[in-house]
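dude i think i finally got it to work??
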Amino acid sequence: MTRKPPAEDPGDARLRVGPPKEYAAGIPAVTSSLRHAGEQMGARRSLLTLLRVNQKEGFDCPGCAWPEPEHRHKAEFCENGAKAVAEEATVRRVTPDFFAEHTLEDLLPRSDYWLGQQGRLTHPMYRPAGADRYRPISWDDAFAVIARELAALDHPDQAAFYTSGRASNEAAFLYQLFVRGFGTNNLPDCSNMCHESSGSALTETIGIGKGSVRLDDLYEADLILVVGQNPGTNHPRMLSALEKAKERGACVIAVNPLPEAGLLRFKNPQRASGIIGGGTRLADQFLQIRLGGDQALFQAFNRMLLEAEDEAPGTLDTSFIERYTHGFEEFAEYARKASWDEILQATGLPEEEIRTAFRQVLAADKIVVCWAMGLTQHKHSVPTIRDVVNFLLLRGNIGRPGAGLCPVRGHSNVQGDRTMGIYEKPDDAFLDRLGAEFAFTPPRHHGHDAVDSIRAMRDGEVRVFVALGGNFVAAAPDTDLTEHGLRRCRLTVQISTKLNRSHVIAGEQALILPCLGRTEADLRPTGPQLVTVEDSMGMVHLSRGRLAPASEHLLSEVAIICRMARATLGEAVPRVPWEEFEADYDRIRDRIERVIPGFEDFNARVRRPGGFALPHPPRDERRFTTATGLANFTVNQLESPKAPPGRLLLQTLRSHDQYNTTIYGLDDRYRGIHQGRRVLFLHPDDLTDRGLAEGDLVDIVSEYEDGVERRAPSFRVVPYPTPRGCCAAYFPETNVLVPLDSTAAVSNTPTSKSIVVRLEPVS
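look at this
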């Protein structure tokens, strides 16, 4: 399988490579934010919009899920947040004239960046079977197409319903209600491809698939481990929290294969020291770990903690272990046998560096471990996160202030979607409450996650695919196979704000249903409607759009779901008042309150400034709702990815001008890349070993046990301080290299951070 570069790829002629930055933010971040906002929105619209981002009376940033502090700056947004808002609030438009001018064949070679830059979608569009382009369609006719194709299926499980992390709580709740009313649990979502490993490990070990910290815990921590995460690009407002923690005396250790500018030094643009001064050094120590070596590092820490307890009783929190945990003896017996030879090989770190970090562990009373995709997208990701839990349990660092688990989620409501029931494996208690509230019998059998949905489309077992937001083609692994599966569908439906590649890879029939964005006013006859979101730390709050909609033809996500459900289900679930829900979102929240624990008095509490925190038994009560009724220590065999001689381990990553699959620009300022994305970062010695020189072009070819050749052509090699034997390149350009069947044990998450590849020079 070979992916051609996009038609407008800038190539070597425009691509410039400079030295990586040694700090994040500062004046360049301000300049970049204003430039992107001005280009997309204009000066006045930019000012009015950006001053409302993440405010208590404003709208939630459509970017990441980092929580808002209690006391907020007037500019409570980061550079990437400004880019996300500018993308959505752009004045550019994709009208029916655009589709009249462009066939799908015309659009196919275009890049994700080019497609996104065309602007906001304005009309519902339909590609009939056999047609070469989309044409306008009325909303009623669009819903009739969906109802017809769903009714024609042999079984409800022949449809799959994807969800992006940008959907509101209200939309997500109604979406899963519609899908289960239709009769399936095929609810793949973006969590399946990112933090599913976190949810799997945490549910097993502490009884809830969410992190255990609040923002104040970071401020109170003695030690913060930032592992497999690049907050400078992916969650820039986290840098302000780390800066505050440093000012209060915290130590920060960064664990990552690449040195990231944001963890080296942060120039806070809201402070004079960040504008004219040197900023704040964040990481006290940087452990440049090999890809997938994180489990070995935490096993080393766990072994050393047990040995420290032998030498100095009281090092461990034995009272916590005895009262609140299960399985300590079995865990300890295994942990004491951890092999230093295996640890050093897996991590690629000198032993002294690990022991230096461990001295900070011993000195700290309160520890927070933060992580992201660097931990979750390996075959052994779930065991790795279990060992992170083991590490914190040993000293009672779960369920007390200043300590705990902090999986840093991506899109702004990805955690809320799961809370609302977007899950292919719902528990019986949730289904019991949902069925009782709406007087129907929800399906009990497990549905397809994202990877299984692709397999089912490939095999002709799923014939209709509906996506509530997102860019499924660009987010999914094994790009060619994913595209093949979607094209086999009888109907694909994309509920979207912007044009993206998933609109180009159409089924036999395809619909584009344009919706309101987070920034826009949602006006109904009953008045302006508000939606809610849940951040990465379990806080639920309102989001109020203020801008005029991009087109008079747009509907809200809630309205689209309600009308789609009415057209499809008719009276099949008679107790669901779809028209009432569309008219007044308070009525949706009334039902959420009755179905989902923690949302008592939802409408009143969410209207309080700042919203409210959802209950978290381990954090709030040191109560663990696991199978044992306690926090579980686990025994995990040490694993780490290995590449054969002459091969490399590749990780896919984001550029700084990118958020998830949305490409804002062609620069990665922090890594010194300008006007291009087809670059491959690798150690200078690995270049030399392969007879390559800086600037050479190579094809990247992944190798997997299925024997299928997956090739990403024409990448420019860039010498970079990576660990030997490891390399990195941007997604979605390299998603083609991730085999569909290469997934994490338990969670089924694609292994996008440890792909075995070889390089072939381009003549």
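The longest strand covers residues 710-719.
im so relieved honestly
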